[in-house]
Every structure is written in C-alpha cells, then in structure tokens.
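Worked example

This section walks through a single chain of length 98. The input is the sequence exactly as stored; nothing has been trimmed or padded.
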Amino acid sequence: MTAQATILGIWFATPLLLAYLLCHIKKRQTPDFSQCVAVFMATLGAVVGVFFGIDTLKASSPCASVCEDQRVPMYLGALAIEFVSLWQLVQSFYRLLR
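Given that input, the structure is written out below as tokens.
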C-alpha cells in the first residue's frame, strides 16, 4: 500500500506543483519554495490519506493488524489527514490567486 500510494501521490503532486509555479511565472512573481514544498507534501498527504482510509475500511480479518475497536479512530485519523492536506492546498492556491 505504501509504495503504491506514494507513487500515485507523486504523480498527482507534480502537475499541481507545476501549475503553482506557472501561476507565479504568469504573475511575474518569485515563487516561494517553502510553499512549493507545502503544495507537494499536502498533495502527497491527501493521496496517502485516501489510501489509509480505504485500507482501514477494507481490513476485515483480525490478522490484518486492525482491530475492531481501532477502526473508527484510524478512519477519523485518515479524515484528519485529508482535511489538513486539502486545507493547505486551498490556502496555498488562494494566496496566489487573490
């Protein structure tokens, strides 16, 4: 799961990072590279959060290392990862586009 989610996250993050940089170039501004890292990591976190949530919901056997009493907190953690990642993406692009 981890390698597949990471590779897919990189495939999603690279075009978003390029779009972020192109918006800066179009506005003739110097890109803030700490924000570039934030966009890349937020996109990667969003993709990994989706995979983590799906894996948590699909794990049904006790040998999958997910106990029944841990399923809800783990799923809520995946939703928290999604919220924080998407919030960071919105904030990064909102600062750029206003």
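What to look for: Helices lie at 2-26, 33-58, 68-97.
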